[in-house]
Every structure is written in C-alpha cells, then in structure tokens.
Design goal:
By secondary structure, the chain is mainly β. The protein has 4 helices and 17 strands. Strand 4 and strand 5 form a beta hairpin.
Length: 382
C-alpha cells in the first residue's frame, strides 16, 4: 500500500513539474550496491511423512549485493524508457517458526543463498529542477529467474530429524518501483544514485524435508540501494534561443545587434528596408517575434511604392548540405507568406536560398549557431 501511495503521489507531481529542454537519444547505465531481502515467507503445503513437515515460517537473509546494466532511450520530454538487467545475491541466515511445534533452522544450522536475475522494462520521469542534479521516479515490469541453494540441518529440530534442502530455478513475473537522483559530472555523464523496491511472484521449488520430497514455496522481495554511472550516446541538446527587444519593436537573438536607428524623413523612407528574421533550430515556422517584425516592416514599406522584395533563406552548418538547402527554401517561403499576409504584393517578392553557404557567423561544419538560422529581407522602393 505504501508503494502504491508513493507512486501515485509521484505521478501527480509529474503533472505540475516544470518542462525542460531535455536530452533526446540513447543512453547506457551501470551500477552496483547493497541488496536487502529481510524476511521472506517460506511455506510447505504439501508435506510428506503424514503431515509432520507442514509449516508456515519466514526466512531471514543477510545483506547482499546487487548490480545492474541498462540501455535506454530519452524522449526529450523528461520521459525515459530502458531495458534493465539486474543480478542480486543474498545468503540465508535462518528460517524462523511462525507457530508452536516447529523449531525451524536458527543461525548456524542453515546455509546457502538465493540468486535473482531479472530482465525489466522501466519507465522513468526526470524532474527538471536544476542543472546539477536531477531527481527521478519510475516503475518497471518484467521477468525474474530465481535460484535457491539452501541446505539446513537442525539436530534438535522439531519435527525430527530437522533437515531441509531446496533449490532449482524458477521463472516468475517481477515488478519494481524506482526513485533516484542523478548528479551531472560532465556533458552527457552523470553519477546516479537510486533506490529500488523489487518484488517477484511466489515460486514453488523442489526440495526435501527430513529426506522426504516436498514442494517449498517462498516469496522474493528486496530493497536495493545502487550507485553508478549514466552516459548519453548522442550530443547535448541545443540551447533555446533567447531574444531581446529592439528600438523598432523587433526581437533578435541576444548575441545579435539591433537594426540601426534611422532618421524619420521622406528621404530615409525611400532607402531600402533591411531586416532579418531568425528561426529556431531545424524550424521554418515563424516565431511570434518574427511575425511581429514582418508585420511592422510591411506596414512601413506599404507607405511607399515597393519595387522589389528579396527574401534570402539561410541555415547553420548542422545537418547535411542538401537538407539545409531545402530548409533555407522553406524559411524563405515562410517569410514571403508572412509579407503577403500583411499586404505586400506577391509579384514583387523574389526568393533566394543559400542553405549553409552564406553564414552570418562562420562556424565549422556541424555547429548549431542561432545567428545563421535566418532569412535576410531587403525591400527596395521605386
């Protein structure tokens, strides 16, 4: 019940969590740590020897180890999906009776361990609260292979002769709840600390009680505390473009210069109007700031007789040259459509597309540069 309440609370928190420009792509993860099984139910409902060995008890385990490895996909919206393999091993300490007439196997009379190997599909959500640490929650489901190697002998046990042994492997359904915190060490690399509550279905295992074949049923629950590394296989996401307002009401990236102020005279009005429309990464749609800039420029231009309008689309160097050529054409058409929507005659507009060949800020190939994602506009008058 506590686990269910925790997961429901975490899901509700996701609905109000802040959005972030999250990583999108494949990642890998490895980790290791402590695994605590605590007490597990151990029962025998099919006794031999005339019912002498029927019992309901609990097994106590020592603290053990656990390791995991995962391959995942981050979807860019704070959600991640991953395939996880885990290994857990704990040594048994005792089997304690839950009722009278049964001695169990105290510490020192029983030995062996329980090994659990699991293949899980996890769904995780990252909370974007800071640039240095990212808390997350999740849940997973899958299948587990459980292997017991347990042998106990209690000479003074009741009923006599007080021996137990069970092993064999069993495949059981498994699920887990996850909570963790990832600390950023470098670009694309994080130190990951996580907690997992792991549960499998109860399994029946071939064994013997007092040398008589019998079926032993046990539960498998554990609390795991892991520490490890997670690394991204792809590049870091491009930062969002930040704009500033200029004197003429337009908006440009903070690293760009505002248009020069001109003297409001008739002669100045007849000079060509030059302005630049900027685009987000890999986008050709107009931002609200760009639409406002086009509207204001069109209004100024329509005060005189327009001779020609030249719209030149450009891109940065991220992506192939063929893709960028087509992207620059789409950006030029988007600006043309915006001018036409604000009253500029279509037959006055000429389009040009330079792809990545006309950089406002020269960069090496493959670099995302906001100043290069643009369409340059020149409006000339008769």
């Amino acid at each position: 019940m506590k686990l269910k309440t925790t997961l429901l609370a975490a899901a509700a928190t996701m609905l109000v969590a802040p959005a972030a420009h999250a990583y999108e792509g494949l990642y890998g993860a490895i980790g290791a740590g402590l695994n605590y099984m605590g007490e597990q139910d151990v029962t025998n409902d099919q006794p031999g020897g005339g019912g002498l060995y029927s019992f309901d008890s609990s097994a106590d385990y020592d603290k053990g180890i656990g390791v995991y490895a995962a391959l995942g996909k981050a979807w860019g919206n704070n959600w991640r999906t991953e395939l996880e393999f885990s290994y857990r091993d704990n040594s048994i300490d005792s089997i304690n009776p839950n009722g009278a007439g049964f001695s169990g196997w105290p510490d020192g009379t029983i030995s062996g361990s329980t090994t659990t190997k699991a293949l899980m599909v996890n769904f995780l959500y990252d909370f974007a609260v800071s640039s240095t640490a990212t808390p997350y929650v999740g849940f997973g489901g899958g299948i587990a292979n459980i292997d017991h190697d347990i042998i106990g002998t209690n000479p003074a046990g009741v009923p006599a002769p007080g021996t137990i042994a069970y092993g064999t492997r069993s495949w059981e359904p498994a699920y887990q709840g996850i909570a963790g915190l990832a600390f950023n060490l470098a670009e694309g690399l994080a130190f990951d600390v996580s907690y997992r509550y792991f549960v499998t279905g109860k399994g029946e295992y071939d064994g013997t009680l007092g040398g008589i074949p019998s079926e032993i049923e046990t539960s498998n629950k554990s609390h795991s505390l892991f520490a490890g590394l997670r690394w991204n296989f792809g590049a870091a996401p491009a930062p969002a473009v930040e704009y500033k307002d200029c004197w003429d009401g337009s908006s440009v990236p903070v690293s760009a210069s505002c248009p020069p102020q001109t003297v409001d005279t008739t002669a100045a009005d007849l000079d060509p109007i030059n302005f630049t429309v900027y685009f987000d990464y890999d986008k050709s749609n107009l931002t609200p700031q760009a639409s406002t800039l086009i509207q204001e420029a069109a209004a100024r231009a329509l005060e005189n007789d327009i001779e020609t309008v030249v719209v030149a689309g450009n891109t940065d160097t991220s992506g192939s040259s063929a893709y960028n050529q087509a992207l620059s054409e789409r950006r030029a058409r988007a600006v043309r459509d915006g001018l036409i929507a604000n009253g500029v005659a279509a037959d006055r507009i000429r389009l040009e597309a330079f792809g990545e060949t006309n950089l406002a800020k020269p960069t090496p190939d493959g670099v995302r540069e906001p100043l290069n994602r643009r369409a340059d506009v020149v409006i000339s008058f008769e």
